[in-house]
Amino acid sequence: MSGTSSKTTHPFFKHRELLAMLVARNLKIRYKGTALGFLWSLLTPGLFILMYALFAKILRFSGSREGYLAFLVTGIIVWQLTASCLNDSLNAIAGNANLVKKVAFPRVILPISTALANMVNFLLTLLVLVVFLLIGKVADLSRFWWILPALAVQLGLVVGLSCLAATSNVFFRDTQHIVGIGSQAWFFLTPIFYPLEMQTALLKGRWADLVYLNPMTGVLAAWRTALLGDSPATGLQLGISTLVAALVLFAGLLAMRRGNRFLGDLL
Predict the structure, then answer these.
(1) Which of 31, 44, 191, 254 has the most CB atoms within 10 Å of its CB?
(2) Is residue 2 part of a domain?
(3) Cα separation of 95 and 235, whole Å?
(4) Mean of the pLDDT values across residues 130-156?
(5) How many domains does the chain have?
(6) The domain containing residue 24 runs over which residues?
Protein backbone atom coordinates (compact mmCIF):
# COMPACT_ATOMS: atom_id res chain seq x y z
CA MET A 1 0.00 0.00 0.00
CA SER A 2 2.81 2.38 0.84
CA GLY A 3 4.36 1.85 -2.58
CA THR A 4 1.06 2.60 -4.28
CA SER A 5 0.53 5.79 -2.33
CA SER A 6 4.02 7.05 -3.15
CA LYS A 7 3.44 6.51 -6.85
CA THR A 8 0.18 8.44 -6.81
CA THR A 9 1.64 11.42 -4.96
CA HIS A 10 1.10 14.55 -7.02
CA PRO A 11 4.45 15.78 -8.45
CA PHE A 12 3.69 19.31 -7.27
CA PHE A 13 3.32 18.05 -3.68
CA LYS A 14 6.56 16.09 -4.00
CA HIS A 15 8.41 19.31 -4.83
CA ARG A 16 6.87 21.45 -2.08
CA GLU A 17 10.29 21.87 -0.42
CA LEU A 18 11.73 23.19 -3.69
CA LEU A 19 8.80 25.59 -3.95
CA ALA A 20 9.43 26.87 -0.41
CA MET A 21 13.15 27.26 -1.18
CA LEU A 22 12.43 29.24 -4.36
CA VAL A 23 9.97 31.52 -2.56
CA ALA A 24 12.58 32.20 0.14
CA ARG A 25 15.24 32.79 -2.53
CA ASN A 26 13.05 35.29 -4.37
CA LEU A 27 12.43 37.19 -1.14
CA LYS A 28 16.15 37.27 -0.29
CA ILE A 29 17.15 38.45 -3.77
CA ARG A 30 14.72 41.38 -3.53
CA TYR A 31 16.69 42.93 -0.66
CA LYS A 32 20.13 41.41 -1.20
CA GLY A 33 22.93 43.84 -0.43
CA THR A 34 20.66 46.43 1.23
CA ALA A 35 21.42 47.77 4.69
CA LEU A 36 17.87 47.44 6.02
CA GLY A 37 17.06 44.18 4.27
CA PHE A 38 13.57 42.84 4.87
CA LEU A 39 12.57 46.01 6.74
CA TRP A 40 12.08 47.63 3.34
CA SER A 41 8.89 45.56 3.08
CA LEU A 42 7.48 47.73 5.87
CA LEU A 43 9.25 51.01 5.12
CA THR A 44 8.41 51.16 1.40
CA PRO A 45 4.59 51.21 1.76
CA GLY A 46 4.87 53.74 4.61
CA LEU A 47 6.97 56.12 2.49
CA PHE A 48 4.71 55.42 -0.45
CA ILE A 49 1.61 56.47 1.54
CA LEU A 50 3.34 59.68 2.72
CA MET A 51 4.29 60.51 -0.88
CA TYR A 52 0.72 60.16 -2.12
CA ALA A 53 -0.64 62.12 0.84
CA LEU A 54 1.70 65.00 -0.01
CA PHE A 55 0.88 64.71 -3.72
CA ALA A 56 -2.86 64.84 -3.08
CA LYS A 57 -2.50 67.82 -0.73
CA ILE A 58 -0.32 69.87 -3.09
CA LEU A 59 -2.65 69.35 -6.03
CA ARG A 60 -5.74 69.62 -3.82
CA PHE A 61 -6.96 66.46 -5.45
CA SER A 62 -9.66 64.83 -3.36
CA GLY A 63 -11.62 62.88 -5.93
CA SER A 64 -15.36 62.54 -5.58
CA ARG A 65 -15.61 60.75 -2.24
CA GLU A 66 -14.78 61.24 1.41
CA GLY A 67 -11.56 59.57 2.53
CA TYR A 68 -10.22 59.68 -1.00
CA LEU A 69 -6.58 59.21 0.04
CA ALA A 70 -7.42 55.90 1.74
CA PHE A 71 -9.45 54.90 -1.32
CA LEU A 72 -6.54 55.73 -3.65
CA VAL A 73 -3.77 54.14 -1.58
CA THR A 74 -5.76 50.93 -1.08
CA GLY A 75 -6.32 50.67 -4.82
CA ILE A 76 -2.69 51.27 -5.75
CA ILE A 77 -1.24 48.89 -3.16
CA VAL A 78 -3.60 46.12 -4.28
CA TRP A 79 -2.75 46.84 -7.92
CA GLN A 80 0.99 46.69 -7.20
CA LEU A 81 0.69 43.02 -6.23
CA THR A 82 -0.69 42.18 -9.67
CA ALA A 83 1.82 44.42 -11.48
CA SER A 84 4.77 43.01 -9.50
CA CYS A 85 3.77 39.43 -10.25
CA LEU A 86 3.46 40.21 -13.95
CA ASN A 87 6.84 41.95 -14.15
CA ASP A 88 8.79 39.51 -11.98
CA SER A 89 7.38 36.43 -13.70
CA LEU A 90 8.79 37.44 -17.09
CA ASN A 91 12.17 36.01 -16.08
CA ALA A 92 10.87 33.27 -13.79
CA ILE A 93 11.78 30.66 -16.41
CA ALA A 94 13.99 32.58 -18.85
CA GLY A 95 16.21 33.72 -15.97
CA ASN A 96 16.64 30.20 -14.55
CA ALA A 97 18.00 28.42 -17.64
CA ASN A 98 20.55 26.36 -15.69
CA LEU A 99 17.91 25.08 -13.29
CA VAL A 100 15.44 24.28 -16.07
CA LYS A 101 18.04 22.38 -18.14
CA LYS A 102 19.70 20.40 -15.36
CA VAL A 103 16.99 19.55 -12.82
CA ALA A 104 13.81 17.54 -13.44
CA PHE A 105 10.87 19.21 -11.69
CA PRO A 106 7.50 20.74 -12.66
CA ARG A 107 8.49 24.03 -14.33
CA VAL A 108 5.23 25.58 -13.12
CA ILE A 109 6.88 25.88 -9.71
CA LEU A 110 9.03 28.77 -11.00
CA PRO A 111 6.25 31.29 -11.82
CA ILE A 112 4.20 30.10 -8.83
CA SER A 113 7.15 30.76 -6.50
CA THR A 114 7.43 34.27 -7.96
CA ALA A 115 3.74 34.93 -7.33
CA LEU A 116 3.91 33.54 -3.78
CA ALA A 117 7.00 35.62 -2.94
CA ASN A 118 5.17 38.74 -4.06
CA MET A 119 2.14 37.66 -2.05
CA VAL A 120 4.26 37.38 1.12
CA ASN A 121 5.65 40.86 0.49
CA PHE A 122 2.12 42.14 -0.14
CA LEU A 123 0.84 40.75 3.19
CA LEU A 124 3.54 42.73 5.00
CA THR A 125 2.55 45.81 3.02
CA LEU A 126 -1.07 45.13 3.98
CA LEU A 127 -0.15 45.41 7.67
CA VAL A 128 1.22 48.90 7.07
CA LEU A 129 -1.89 49.84 5.09
CA VAL A 130 -4.23 48.66 7.87
CA VAL A 131 -2.24 50.64 10.48
CA PHE A 132 -2.45 53.74 8.26
CA LEU A 133 -6.22 53.32 7.86
CA LEU A 134 -6.70 52.82 11.60
CA ILE A 135 -4.57 55.86 12.51
CA GLY A 136 -6.46 57.95 9.96
CA LYS A 137 -9.75 56.66 11.40
CA VAL A 138 -10.98 55.70 7.94
CA ALA A 139 -10.81 51.94 8.37
CA ASP A 140 -14.08 50.06 8.59
CA LEU A 141 -13.35 46.44 9.38
CA SER A 142 -16.95 45.39 9.97
CA ARG A 143 -16.77 43.38 6.75
CA PHE A 144 -13.15 42.29 7.18
CA TRP A 145 -14.03 38.71 6.24
CA TRP A 146 -14.19 39.96 2.63
CA ILE A 147 -10.41 39.68 2.73
CA LEU A 148 -10.86 35.95 2.08
CA PRO A 149 -12.50 36.22 -1.38
CA ALA A 150 -10.23 39.19 -2.18
CA LEU A 151 -7.09 37.16 -1.47
CA ALA A 152 -8.38 33.99 -3.12
CA VAL A 153 -9.45 35.60 -6.38
CA GLN A 154 -6.34 37.76 -6.65
CA LEU A 155 -4.02 34.84 -5.86
CA GLY A 156 -5.63 32.74 -8.59
CA LEU A 157 -5.38 35.65 -11.00
CA VAL A 158 -1.71 36.45 -10.36
CA VAL A 159 -0.67 32.78 -10.51
CA GLY A 160 -2.39 32.46 -13.88
CA LEU A 161 -0.85 35.68 -15.17
CA SER A 162 2.60 34.66 -13.90
CA CYS A 163 2.40 31.30 -15.70
CA LEU A 164 1.25 32.95 -18.93
CA ALA A 165 3.93 35.66 -18.84
CA ALA A 166 6.75 33.29 -17.85
CA THR A 167 5.92 30.76 -20.57
CA SER A 168 5.24 33.32 -23.27
CA ASN A 169 8.52 35.13 -22.62
CA VAL A 170 10.47 31.95 -23.42
CA PHE A 171 8.75 31.45 -26.78
CA PHE A 172 8.24 35.11 -27.67
CA ARG A 173 10.74 37.58 -26.17
CA ASP A 174 8.62 40.59 -27.13
CA THR A 175 6.32 39.55 -24.28
CA GLN A 176 8.08 41.91 -21.86
CA HIS A 177 7.25 44.91 -24.04
CA ILE A 178 3.66 43.80 -24.49
CA VAL A 179 3.30 43.30 -20.73
CA GLY A 180 4.71 46.78 -20.08
CA ILE A 181 2.25 48.50 -22.39
CA GLY A 182 -0.65 46.20 -21.53
CA SER A 183 -0.29 46.63 -17.77
CA GLN A 184 -0.34 50.42 -18.16
CA ALA A 185 -3.56 50.24 -20.17
CA TRP A 186 -5.02 47.80 -17.63
CA PHE A 187 -4.12 50.18 -14.78
CA PHE A 188 -6.14 53.02 -16.28
CA LEU A 189 -9.05 50.73 -17.14
CA THR A 190 -9.27 49.62 -13.51
CA PRO A 191 -11.07 51.89 -11.00
CA ILE A 192 -7.99 52.61 -8.91
CA PHE A 193 -7.93 56.41 -8.72
CA TYR A 194 -11.51 57.00 -9.79
CA PRO A 195 -14.77 55.49 -8.43
CA LEU A 196 -16.37 52.52 -10.12
CA GLU A 197 -19.49 54.57 -10.77
CA MET A 198 -17.62 56.50 -13.47
CA GLN A 199 -17.40 53.27 -15.46
CA THR A 200 -20.88 51.93 -14.76
CA ALA A 201 -22.35 55.32 -15.74
CA LEU A 202 -21.17 54.66 -19.29
CA LEU A 203 -23.27 51.50 -19.43
CA LYS A 204 -26.98 51.18 -18.82
CA GLY A 205 -28.98 48.89 -16.58
CA ARG A 206 -27.91 45.27 -16.44
CA TRP A 207 -25.00 45.92 -18.82
CA ALA A 208 -23.23 47.84 -16.04
CA ASP A 209 -22.08 44.55 -14.53
CA LEU A 210 -19.88 43.99 -17.58
CA VAL A 211 -17.22 46.18 -15.96
CA TYR A 212 -16.52 43.18 -13.73
CA LEU A 213 -15.14 41.33 -16.74
CA ASN A 214 -11.99 43.13 -15.65
CA PRO A 215 -11.10 40.76 -12.77
CA MET A 216 -9.23 43.50 -10.92
CA THR A 217 -12.51 45.43 -10.65
CA GLY A 218 -14.01 42.66 -8.53
CA VAL A 219 -10.76 42.20 -6.60
CA LEU A 220 -10.55 45.92 -5.76
CA ALA A 221 -14.22 46.03 -4.78
CA ALA A 222 -13.65 43.13 -2.37
CA TRP A 223 -10.54 44.73 -0.83
CA ARG A 224 -12.28 48.07 -0.36
CA THR A 225 -15.23 46.31 1.25
CA ALA A 226 -12.87 44.51 3.65
CA LEU A 227 -10.78 47.55 4.60
CA LEU A 228 -12.98 50.61 4.02
CA GLY A 229 -16.44 49.15 4.54
CA ASP A 230 -17.59 49.97 1.01
CA SER A 231 -20.85 48.39 -0.15
CA PRO A 232 -19.99 44.86 -1.27
CA ALA A 233 -20.31 43.71 -4.85
CA THR A 234 -23.27 41.44 -5.55
CA GLY A 235 -22.78 37.71 -5.96
CA LEU A 236 -23.18 38.07 -9.72
CA GLN A 237 -20.62 40.89 -9.94
CA LEU A 238 -17.98 39.13 -7.86
CA GLY A 239 -18.81 35.90 -9.66
CA ILE A 240 -18.01 37.47 -13.03
CA SER A 241 -14.57 38.61 -11.86
CA THR A 242 -13.95 35.26 -10.14
CA LEU A 243 -14.85 33.36 -13.32
CA VAL A 244 -12.47 35.47 -15.42
CA ALA A 245 -9.69 34.99 -12.84
CA ALA A 246 -10.33 31.22 -12.89
CA LEU A 247 -10.11 31.19 -16.70
CA VAL A 248 -6.80 33.09 -16.53
CA LEU A 249 -5.50 30.56 -13.99
CA PHE A 250 -6.60 27.64 -16.19
CA ALA A 251 -5.02 29.23 -19.29
CA GLY A 252 -1.75 29.82 -17.42
CA LEU A 253 -1.51 26.27 -16.10
CA LEU A 254 -2.43 24.88 -19.54
CA ALA A 255 0.26 27.03 -21.20
CA MET A 256 2.84 25.70 -18.74
CA ARG A 257 1.76 22.12 -19.34
CA ARG A 258 1.83 22.41 -23.12
CA GLY A 259 5.12 24.31 -23.26
CA ASN A 260 6.94 22.40 -20.50
CA ARG A 261 8.81 19.94 -22.73
CA PHE A 262 10.10 22.66 -25.06
CA LEU A 263 11.43 25.06 -22.41
CA GLY A 264 14.82 23.43 -21.95
CA ASP A 265 15.50 23.38 -25.70
CA LEU A 266 14.52 27.03 -26.20
CA LEU A 267 16.70 28.21 -23.33
Answers:
(1) 191
(2) no
(3) 40
(4) 93
(5) 1
(6) 9-266
